[in-house]
Structures are given as structure tokens and as C-alpha cells.
Amino acid sequence: MNLILLGAPGAGKGTQAEVICDKLQIPAISTGNIIREALKNGTELGQKAKSYMDAGSLVPDEVVIAIIKERLAQEDCKNGFILDGFPRTVPQAEALDAMGVVIHKVLDIEVPDETIQKRLSGRRVCESCGASYHVDFKPSSKGEMCDKCGGKLVIRKDDQPETVKERLKVYHESTEPLCDYYRKAGKLTVIEGQEEVAQTSALVLKALEA
Ligand code: AP5
Q: Could you tell me if residue 125 is inside a domain?
């Protein structure tokens, strides 16, 4: 199954992508994670994306479209994939269609903006392996260290309150129109995402069975 997860920054796309990945054994592809990895490794892509990402803006369409094209051509996507954070603009969705990629379902995880601010201010990520935690909702059992690899947990640069405000603005302007795009295509399911992780996961898994 080929899936797209839509939703505001901090709606829980990454969290739910992991759940679906475990259940369906298909890769979760996060453009955000691919760009952060490039940044960490100091590649040309990382350098190109840095200023956009730090400011909470979108990286130019042609850059992310090229990333996705290359990633979807890999062997592990043959039996399906989850796109987390792509597409984020109507031109990105059109590019996916133009590549001949068939999307079976699009899940839009809806969470009010006030809840988003709270979630992102408490998020911590491992600077070594990228695992994601929350100080209240998903703490690491090792305090400031990662449960998975022992790496240091840090605050993402774009999780600062002012940057989150900008990311939400960009989301409402550029990404929300994708709900209509996929609703018209008969592919959209809206998931209420403001409750606990397990409750959202139950709704997500139910939507996949429908
Ligand atoms: P990206 O990394 O994709 O960031 P995002 O979409 O803003 O999403 P987040 O990772 O912030 O949130 P999420 O929805 O995955 O939430 P999570 O599960 O972590 O992109 C970053 C940047 O890269 C962009 O700003 C842009 O510059 C660039 N970029 C990426 N893709 C692009 C594209 N296609 N085009 C252009 N530019 C692009 O949850 C958040 C927190 O809440 C966690 O701490 C989690 O533990 C907690 N949490 C999750 N669910 C719950 C729950 N139900 N209850 C309580 N806490 C919860």
C-alpha cells in the first residue's frame, strides 16, 4: 500500500509513520529526516536546505521532488511506502502524479494549533540516531540520553516557539490545500489526532483496514 500522511508540524506524522511501518512492514519516508541527515553530513543538499529549514520555511519544490524521485526508485519501496512530510504543496502532489506514482490512501492527522505548540516545545530528538521523544508524553527512560542508542537528546532548532509559529503559518497556506486535492480524488481520511498516541494509532490502523 502506498500512503501519504498529511498534518501540521507536530501533528504526530512521524509517530504514526512508525506504527504503520511496524504493522505493514513498509518503509516510512520522511523528507524532513532526509534533509536533516544531509545537513548533519554537510552535503550540498544540506547546505541548500539549511536556511529554509532554520527559518521554518519550505525547501524549494524542485529540491524535495528530486529527493523523493530518487528515494521511491529504491528496492525497498517496491511493496509500498509511507510518505511523511511529502507532498507539502500542490505542485509537489502534481509532481508525484506526473511520476506515475499511485497513492492508495491519504491520512490527514488533525490537531489544533495550541496543542501543536505544547507538543513541539516538549519534543526532544536524539542527535545520533534521530529517535523522537517528548518530555511529558514519551520520555526516554534514560533522561537526557536516547533509549535506543545512548545518544544525547536535543531540541530541534525549528522547534523554537517563533519558528513553530512560522511553520504553522506555512502549513495553513501551502499544505492544507492538499486536503482538498486528495478529497476530490476520493483518497482522504481525516484522523482526529489530539488525543493520546495510542488512541490516534487505533484510528490510523482502522482507516487502513477500511
Ligand atoms: P519535517 O521534519 O517533516 O517536520 P514537520 O512536518 O514540521 O513535522 P514534525 O517532525 O515537526 O512533526 P510530526 O508531525 O512528525 O510530529 P511527531 O510525530 O514528531 O520537516 C522539517 C522541515 O523540512 C520543514 O519545515 C521544511 O523546511 C523541510 N521540508 C521537509 N519536507 C519538505 C517538503 N516536502 N517540502 C518542502 N520542505 C520540506 O510529534 C511531535 C511531538 O509530539 C513528539 O515529541 C511526539 O512524541 C509528540 N506526540 C506525537 N503524537 C502525540 C500525541 N498523540 N499526544 C501527545 N504527544 C504526541
A: no
